[in-house]
Amino acid sequence: MATATAHHPHRHGPIRYGVIGSGWRTQAFVRAAERLPERLTLEGVVTRSEARVDEIVENWQVPGYTDLDQFLDRHPIDFMITSTPFAVTPVVIKDLVSRGIPVLAETPPAPDVESLRDLWSAVGDSGLVQVAEQYPFHPGNVARRALLDTGAVGDVTWAYVSSTQWYHAAALIRQMLGVGFDDAAVSARSFTLPVVDPQTRAGWTDHIDPVDRTTVLASLDFGGRVGVYDYTDNQVRNPVRGNRMIVRGTHGELADDHLVRLPAPRTPLESDLRRWQTGQYLNFEVPDLYQIGDGERVLYTNPYFGHSLPDEDIAVATLLERTGHWVRDNTEPPYPLAQAAQDQLLALAIRESLETGDVVRTVKEAWH
Fold it and tell me: What domains can you pick out in the chain, each with its CATH number?
């Protein structure tokens, strides 16, 4: 590891960051700086090969390096992002922390329970590590949590998430249930069934013959609050497998964007979360999300209105800006390592239950 050096964040101008790793997920951090240059600056990307450096410079129009020290010598940054294979990520995090550099690590921060514990032992007390878990920052999820915070469904008891996988889904289950580091009893099963699967990361495939895809169904019992995990392979890109979220409470239920509640005897009420989108029909503004409300109050306002960002890019930009202000201004940390470690702990418990057929019980870990 390198010798620790003092890190001096900038106080003015766009948030500045660098990325270690140049795979598919790095593109989100590239896009954020491209679309929001007045707020975010990508100083450069550190990768393993000179050939990849040439591609980075040509395709992304940012500096590329194979040497981290050289990058750090030449570029002022507020923090570094690790966008590396998760087996490598703990090593990179430790190296950056040893240099005194704040880190925003891609998910998951470590591949297994032992490496999570080792990583926490090495850097947990540093206060320098956040994790880029973007799904809790998606506009719809922020709005849902804000609605739950009004007491609309009473005390939340149940959260069903069928939209994304593993640690991402665990983050959403915890967000909707409002559970922190509670012990959980996890039970999982899988089912392999045929379904069309016509899209990949590269786009449409033009194949519509059914193929076998596995669905994982798991329950996470936190004692008085229950999460249900439901994910089919490639669901996030399959147009015939939708995204669903159901949050139930003592006095109501929020099913995706539809709320049913009982605020008084014999008085069931229904309402919906509605997105105010520009650029539709006779609205001549560019297509964009302005806000999300429930008919009585605004639950979410898009901080990047006017830039026409999709929800995913809004979430990533939010994480980047909050990480920058956490470094510069000592504001609330966006997603601390402890939270992401707990998400991964639950995801690994789901996998273990699948493999063994047993109920897997998580217990308090050092990051609690």
Answer: 15-106+322-334 (3.40.50.720), 136-305 (3.30.360)
